[in-house]
Design brief:
Growth Hormone, Chain: A
């Protein structure tokens, strides 16, 4: 009979990662939402120009994340996380001094490079410092800290904006400097394991892993759905309750995640296998989007958003746990890096598809079209995940194998 696992107690390294994640998300949302406000409303720049800036940052970060994970397998995650924090500090601070579009573009690319360096290595570090049976809980706690940062960041940014955009940008950059110092003190240097492949060869192994490739590609459908909170859901909220509706909308989504994510995960974890929980969570997200099409009051829409949030708060820790389970020894970073493809593709397509579906629904006189289509995507994604995960070992089987 296997020995009982020790109780889940957070180590200094785990606490440092959770706190640093809060700082990173808080710093990000303290300045990025203000870029549009400052340069479009305050400086009179074209909205398309600022959209280019924000899109280029995301493209840079998501593209580099694929390689950041592979590099973590070669040199360990800590140097890349620290370098990424420092580079993002410089990028955000430089934004405060940007007075032309080329300078702002350069600053946003620098900020994207920083994010690309620390994103996948951070997940690899979480995996390395956490026992397999507790990884879902650790990823959940990290997600909660990120949601707390997402709630507090805009409040801090708005307060700093009263002192000027430059002050807000310098303050947001300083937060990443603080995160860097915290991780330098608490995160050990995690020496990479000797693996079959490393660097770009590690990415090649991840891409050739049939089970993982299926898993990653099917998840594109989920990330297409997850972006809709910023697109069709926000537009419907504004149509029902005016511009002030965005505050309650995002506050409810992030607040529920902060309060419920960890206890909900523990409840589900004790009763349902991880892969079953992921399929059910994606199905819940798709169903909630379909129900949003029937909402005729803001209260009804918020009820659907609550259901949507219950699904999304389970997807992140279960997806990350399965990614760590599928990764061979020494290739965790490469697998987390390769998994960023689903977020990059799904997010990019989702932002475009959401708007196109709304326009098509209005043009054809069928307002339910976007919502039913999104629900259909959720159903197909859930079925696709059930197929993609059928050969994935349970945690017990993975422990016996490795």
């Amino acid at each position: 009979m296997p020995a009982a696992a020790p109780p889940f107690r957070l180590s200094p390294a785990q606490l440092g990662l959770i706190a640093a994640n809060f700082l990173m998300w808080g710093g990000f949302f303290a300045v990025i939402p203000l870029v549009t406000v400052h340069f479009v409303d305050g400086r009179g720049w074209a909205a398309a120009s600022v959209g280019l800036v924000l899109g280029l940052r995301q493209l840079t970060q998501q593209g580099l994340t694929v390689f950041g994970g592979a590099w973590a397998d070669q040199i360990g995650p800590k140097p890349l996380i620290l370098a990424g924090c420092l580079i993002r500090t410089l990028g955000f601070m430089w934004m405060g001094f940007a007075d032309t579009l080329p300078v702002l573009l350069a600053a946003s690319v620098l900020a994207g490079i920083g994010g690309g360096l620390f994103d996948a290595p951070k997940n690899a570090a979480i995996t390395a410092v956490t026992r397999p049976e507790y990884r879902a809980r650790m990823f959940s706690l990290t997600s909660i800290s990120g949601n707390l940062g997402m709630v507090t960041g805009p409040l801090i940014g708005a307060a700093l904006l009263g002192l000027g955009f430059r002050t807000a940008a310098l303050g947001a950059g300083s937060v990443y400097l603080l995160a860097c110092a915290l991780l330098a003190a608490t995160l050990p240097h995690l020496r990479p394991e000797r693996a079959v492949g490393s660097g770009l060869s590690g990415l090649k192994i991840a891409a050739q892993d049939r089970r993982f490739r299926r898993f990653t590609l099917v998840l594109v459908g989920y990330f297409l759905l997850s972006t809709q909170l910023n697109v069709v859901v926000t537009l419907k909220a504004v149509a029902l309750a005016g511009p002030g509706a965005t505050g309650p909308l995002y506050g409810l989504s992030a607040g529920l995640a902060v309060v419920l994510q960890y206890p909900l995960l523990k409840f589900v974890e004790a009763r349902v296998r991880t892969r079953v929980a992921l399929v059910a969570a994606v199905l819940t997200v798709g169903l909630s989007l379909g129900l949003m099409g029937l909402a005729v009051t803001f209260g009804q829409l918020l009820a659907c958003v609550a259901l949507y949030s219950l699904g999304t708060m389970l997807v992140y820790p279960t997806q990350q746990t399965l990614t760590a389970r599928l990764a061979p020894p020494g290739l965790t970073g490469s697998y987390f890096g390769f998994s960023a493809i689903s977020l990059g593709l799904g997010g990019a397509v989702g932002n475009v598809v959401g708007g196109l579906l709304l326009d098509a629904g209005e043009r054809l006189g069928t307002p339910l079209l976007p919502w039913l289509t999104l629900m259909g995507v959720g159903l197909l994604t859930a079925l696709g995940l059930r197929w993609a995960l059928k050969e994935v070992p349970t945690r017990e089987e993975a422990e016996r194998q490795g």
